[in-house]
Amino acid sequence: MVRLLSAALAVVLTGLGLAIPSACAQSAWPARPIRLVVTFAPGGSNDIASRLLAPGLSERLGQPVIIENRAGAGGAVGVEAVAKSAPDGYTLVVGPSGALTINSILMKLPYDPVKDLAPVSMFCINPIVMVAHPSVGAQTIRELIARAKADGNKPLAFGTSGNGTAMHLAGELLKQTTGLPLEHIGYKGSAPAVNDLVGGQIPLGILDLATTKPLIASGKLKVIGVASAARSPTAPEIPTLAETGVPGYDVKSWFGIMAPAGTSAEVVGRLNAAIVAELGVAAVREKLLAAGLEPAPGTALAFEEMLRSELARWGQVIKTAGIKLQ
Question: Please, are residues 133 and 221 in contact by the beta-carbon 8 Å criterion?
Fold first, then answer.
């Protein structure tokens, strides 16, 4: 009797053009707020970018997108929380390149970035730049290499925000590619590295452009070049290391948006479309660029391919350099 009444109700509702509640919850997604987990404390680059993205994403999806900061272990704490969440499209993470590639090679993590997460879209690139104390007698990477050879290849210290970071590996790749006698000094963050560089305690730094750009403009630091293959739209006047002496050199620090593995292709597709559309809005792009970040949306498949490529690339660099976290 119950089945007959249910069937009759379905016929009536269909005849009236009303929606029938479906056992397939995915068709009703999203039906509640979405959590966007940011893996660093408020005020960082990925936090700033996420808060610029969230309002428009909320409008496009018809549900609030709530930022949740879960800092710790270079981003691994937040990534792990999402990797272990239900694959229902309601919990996402803004994962940094370190926690999704480098850290998974250097240490044992409680998640596998390939098996436990589903790529949704690349988000932003945080450009890396090589800078020097003004006393360093070189304007380009080509000149720096030549001067190092003339000085008998004495070690040149370069500071970064930490051991095992994208900046550290950028220096190791440069060393392997050019033979430049670089010696890494890892600091606990960009700020102390910048302080020692400005103070002349170290001659070189490989750091993020957003942090160093004001110091370059004021003359307190000298820029050698941007690490990416193309000039950064946030500072197009700065040449790349590739065009000034190291052809093919290309290193970026980035973060992308991921969901738990098993999230349906339909939900990933809708999320991707909303993110790509929002990052295409001129006002959003302008605000990101003003913060020193390059919007970099793309398909979920392109992000997955890039992730696998980065894992293979940095695995080889780490093996060759013998890098181990201390």
Answer: yes
pLDDT in tens, 57-112: 999 999 999 999 998 887 889 999 999 999 999 999 999 898 899 888 888 889 99
- Which portions of the chain are predicted below pLDDT 70? 1-27, 326
Domain range summary for the chain, segments of one domain joined by +: 31-126+253-321, 128-226
Compute how many other C-beta atoms are within 10 angstroms of the C-beta atom of residue 17: 6
Q: pLDDT tens, 259-293? A: 999 999 999 999 999 999 999 999 999 999 988 89
What fold does the segment set 31-126+253-321 form as a domain? D-Maltodextrin-Binding Protein; domain 2 (3.40.190)
| pTM across the whole model | 0.81
Domains 31-126+253-321 and 128-226 in one fold: yes
Whether CATH 3.40.190.10 fits 128-226: yes
